[in-house]
Every structure is written in structure tokens, then in C-alpha cells.
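Field reference: sequence -> structure
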Amino acid sequence: MPALTRPRIDTRITIEPSAPIPQIPARESLSRSARSHVDISRWWSPVSTPDRTLWRNADFRYFFVGQLVTNAGDSLYTVAMLWLAFELSGSTLITGTLNAILLLPWLLQVFAGPLVDRLSLERVLVGSQIIQGIVVLALPLMAATGDLHVGILFAVAPVLMLASLVMAPIETALLPRIVDDERLSSANAALSTVTLGLDMMFDALGGGFVAVFGATTLFLVDSATFVVAALLFAGLRLSTTGADECTELRSETVAPAVRSALRSYVSDLRNGVAVLRGTVFVELILTTAVANFTTGVTLAILPAFGNGLGGPAVYGLLLGALGIGRFVGSFVGPWFEGVPYGKMLLSQGVGACCWLAAVLVSPPALTVFLFGLAWVPSGISGVLSSTLNQRVFPDDLLGRITATKGTASGATLPLGSLVGGAAAEGLGTTTTMALTASGFAFTAVYVLLRPRLRRLPPVRAAEPDDFGVQTEAEQVA
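Structure field:
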């Protein structure tokens, strides 16, 4: 299924993995806002074990805790900001538009990598936390003076979005400078699994905090998390590289680097389209794009839906249930590699039924449970899709293939957020929420009507021919 996103809230469904950042090696990390589109299954393994030597590295501990704290801050301000936008306006159109802005890092990651490569990592890392802390702190101060209104939220949202945009490529570029090569895999796994696993907890806690203390008080706490993160990052001792001795040269080449990255990205997309044309993956991308669109709709109206069920606490619980459902699916996903892939795609229909039932039942607790259950098949699909790509595509094509899939399916997410906010204004929140179950249902119905998709083999036994992918020998012939 698809992949999901919001400003640092993991809300992206994923049948297709997210697009990589051009010219940034190592782990394909995204800011939390765009990590809502991130598939944790790429780094999570149910049998993974901690590397004790890694945890003796003081710099890694500082960075790990700093990432954990800043992720918590991102979760808190996202929950608070979207809830506050709805509280101030009572409009799903407003929340949908604001959420679309916060989702933009997913589409702008291509520009962040080259910039980070040519700037001082220390200054950008600490500076991004300070900027976010100041901006977040300004919101409760304005509330105290009576100057806080929806327009202010729209003014600060782009600043927060841009500040969080650089965190993903910074993480990728920084790790090799604080961790030995043989520890990189363990470091990536630790950062991905632990932070993404706790994100869902912070989402739920954020909603509960808003319910008890209010959104403006939450912003005060949130600003403190960025101060703590800045102090932790300032304590890092980064190794000096040749690139660090050429700051002036790097700054002079930022613009050409961005243009080069964009040209490379466009070239990868064209190559990816050429490889994917005529394969089964074209149809799978379609199902992902539809599901991402309806996910965008969901994120736009979730504050209003949670408010109708009991207020911000229910809103936070719904976000937490979404994350838990996908996390559970990602955890058990590898155990389904022996099940025919076509049948696993049909399981999205089970998710759609749980989603629809969550909207129709009365008790809020049952709604939260069923809503979380609806996302389990999506988490499983994300795991299987990542493995499938690695099995059927040559290694030297995976980057451009992933970029093409991610761009084609992910662009519908902010669009869905915009459309969803407007749709709920006319149709009502409950009706619109029920209709969004069609995202999962579309995948199941489409696969059911396509024998070619229904007969897809298990991921464990997948071959390129099964999915219409030409091997190099076939292309030469």
C-alpha cells in the first residue's frame, strides 16, 4: 500500500518506499514530517540486537538522545498546531491547508541534501533546533498577549517546515563522522527503530497534554525540547574532514549543487519511468497514489473527527493508534514473505473494513482500536514492498526506481490534505472520514479485478519476470 506523511508524524501508508535523497549516500532518512512517508521496515528487524560497543560512543549517545528529544518536539508541535488551527477556526479547510504546508518536506528533500553537504553540519544542526525553539516559544507568548490567530500559524509553519527539512540529510552525513564504518548499520537501525517506535507514543501523549493543559502550554514544553536538543548536539565532537576546511568554497557552490541535484533527480525519474513502463509496478503505484491521497484527506480532518468523539485526547489517541498499527505490521511483515503477494494486497480490504467500522461504531475506545487495526496490513505491505524491490530490480537501478515510485505516489499526499479539508466542509467530517476508507478498499478491489495481480507469487520466490521487469540480458536481446 502507500506511504504516509505529515510534519514529523509518521502518517504515510506505504506500498512503495519513499524516494531517496539524491547525492546523499547511506540510509534514506527523512525528516519526521516526511517520515510520515517513511517505511521503518527498511531498517527494522525483529531479530536485530543492540551493539554494545556503539553505546559506549559518547558522541553517538549525544546524537541519539538529541534526535529522540527533537522528534518528541516535532510530534508535540504538530499535534498542537493542527489542533490549535482547528480550535481557532473550526474549519477543516484551514487544518487541511496547514497540514499540506507541513507535508512539503516530502517533496523538497531533493534540495536539502546538496545544501547540507556544503554547510557546516555543527551550525546547521544546532541552528535548526534554536530556530524551531524560538518560533514555537513565540506562539504561547502571542497567545498571552491576545495576538495569536490562524494567520500566525500559517506564518510559522513554513519556518518550522524548512528547519526540520535539513535534519534527515544531516543525520546521513553526520553518522560516518561519529561512528566507525563497521558500526554504521547498527547506528542506523538504532536511530530508526527507536525514534520511530517512540514517535507514536509522543503523538498520543501530545493529544492528552492538549486536552489537560491546552495547546499553548504544550508549546512552552515543546520549546524546551528544542533547547535540550541544541545543547546535546552542541556537545558533539565531529571529526575534521577535507570538506570542513573549504567552507568558503562550499558556500560558493551551493546554488550550482542544487541545480545539479535537480537535474540528476529529473534524470533518475526519466530512467525510472523507462524501467517501470509495462511492468506490474505501474499499477501498484496507482494504488499507492490513491491511498496516499485519502491519507492526506484523513490527516486534514482528523482533528475535527477527534473533536467530535471527545476532544484533543481522542485526536492524539487516533494518531497513536495509526502509528502502532503500522509499527505492528512492519514488525510482523517479514513473516509473510511466503504468502502470495497478490493475496497480501487483497488484505487491504480488511483494513478498509476496519476503517469503516471505526467510523460507524459509537464507543470512542472501539473507534481508536479499529482505526489502529486498519493500518496493520499497510505496515505489512511496506515491509514486503521493500524486499520485493530488492529482489526484482538490479542494485544499480534501485535508486532511480525508488525515486520514481516515491515521487509518483507521494505527491498526492499534500493534495489530498487540501482536498480533504474542503470536502469535509461540504460533506461533513464523519461522512468524509468514512469515504477515506476507499483508499485501502481501492487497492483490494483493483487487485481483485486484475488476475495478473491476484496471481503474483510470494515475495520470497519473486522473479523479475513475474512482475514484467526485463533483465539486462532481455534488454540486450
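Note: Residues 1-50, 241-251 have pLDDT under 50 and may be disordered.
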